[in-house]
Amino acid sequence: MGKKKQSIFSRFTNLTKANLNHLISKAEDPEKMLDQLVREYTNNVVEAERAAAKVLGGLHKLENDLDKANAAVTDWGAKAELASQKAQKATKNSSEKAEFLNLAKEALRNQIQAEADVTRLEGQIEAQKKNAESLKNNVAKMKKELSEIKSKRDDLVA
Question: What is the largest CA-CA distance in the chain?
Fold first, then answer.
């Protein structure tokens, strides 16, 4: 997606850097040229909006995954505690005690893995939020520029 985002904003930057008045004065039919420019900008805005929507969808998925990972941390912690309590009560039968201790250890390993997942997901969510905000800002700039181009086109046509 990074490559696609770069191409969208590269095209946007290239279009905005162009001196519109210079292009109009050199064009044989400025109205047609401006119409084409409006179409290209409109397509770029739609593409950028799709990219932003995709990023937001990914962000929501990550947030759902984070909720699941947090629930897993709690669940595995409770299972480890329960297995530990049962191991303490199983003093008469040492094999039973060892079995519960092994279950507690396994639950703790799973809890540690879930905690690592939480940390990883939190980092990804933070990065995705920054990316989404940047995309939203860029889309807003593109829409503003499109509006300015349309206005110049309308002025020229009038």
Answer: 98
Residue pair 132/55 in contact (Cβ under 8 Å)? The answer is: yes
- DSSP states of 83-128: HHHHHHH--S-HHHHHHHHHHHHHHHHHHHHHHHHHHHHHHHHHHH
Q: Helices in the chain by DSSP H: which ranges?
A: 2-17, 20-26, 30-89, 94-157
What amino acid is encoded at 121 in this protein? L
Measure the N-to-C terminal CA separation of the chain; round to a whole number of Å: 41
pTM above 0.85, yes or no: no
Instruction: From 103, 119, 110, 41, select the one nearest 73 (Cα to Cα).
Output: 110
pLDDT in tens, 45-59: 999 999 999 999 999
